[in-house]
Amino acid sequence: MAVTARAGGARSVPGSLGHRTVSAAVAEALRQRILSGALAPGFQLRQDALAEEFGISRIPIREALLQLEAGGLVKIVPHRGAVVSGLSVEEIEDIFQLRVSLEPQLLILSARHLTPDDVSELRALRDEYSAALKAGQVENWGELNRRFHLGLLRHAGRPRSLAIVAALLQDCDRPTRLQLSVTGDVARADMEHTTILDLCEAGEVVAAANLLRIHVEHAGRSLVEIYRKSATGG
């Protein structure tokens, strides 16, 4: 038995279900749409529409939504049912304002202390991120982006500030995937990561910090626009 998704832009559940339950297969299909940005934060997941789309009863749909709620991807809201969870526009703005304030300054402190081994490790990580971007491996984008940014800042000598940035980058995991998926900015993100690292290696620390600021600002602006369009149905 195979479960297929028929709605426009929806993804299908590949292959036979085998030993997987119907609800687990539906949960996985919806999970992939959420992580790729096909279903934006605030989108309402109507059980009757999903049951019709997947050609099954509402019982496994309800179970799938509960699985997604347990994973933090969906919220069950009174009078609205299940909606895709996510940060508010105000939270996104706050997160990226903090990142813009902290990351360039930390890079200035860190870049001069990056060793050749550090640079080699960052280039390997950049290559892995680049390959994931080109292959459309959406599930890896946020984590690889987080590791690259923290790798650049590792020698700043500001453990509290770094802990704050690490938490902000963790919060940005799903939003980063959403921003890249919706805007198609994968080439820009890849190029800017490469250039920031090149500038650090060349000792052009201020230029690297300025580009990092532009890089983070652009991602934040793009996400705010995506979230506002989602909220207005635009």
UniProtKB/TrEMBL annotation:
Pfam families: FCD, GntR
Keyword hit for Secreted: no
Alphabetical list of InterPro entries matching this protein: GntR_C, TF_FadR/GntR_C, Tscrpt_reg_HTH_GntR, WH-like_DNA-bd_sf, WH_DNA-bd_sf
Species annotation: Methylobacterium aquaticum
Protein name, UniProt field: GntR family transcriptional regulator
CDD domains: WHTH_GntR
Cross-referenced SUPFAM superfamilies: GntR ligand-binding domain-like, Winged helix' DNA-binding domain
Molecular function terms from GO: DNA binding; DNA-binding transcription factor activity
Keyword Ligase: no
UniProt KW keywords: DNA-binding, Transcription, Transcription regulation
Residue stretches making up the HTH gntR-type domain: 20-87
Highest taxon above the source species: Bacteria
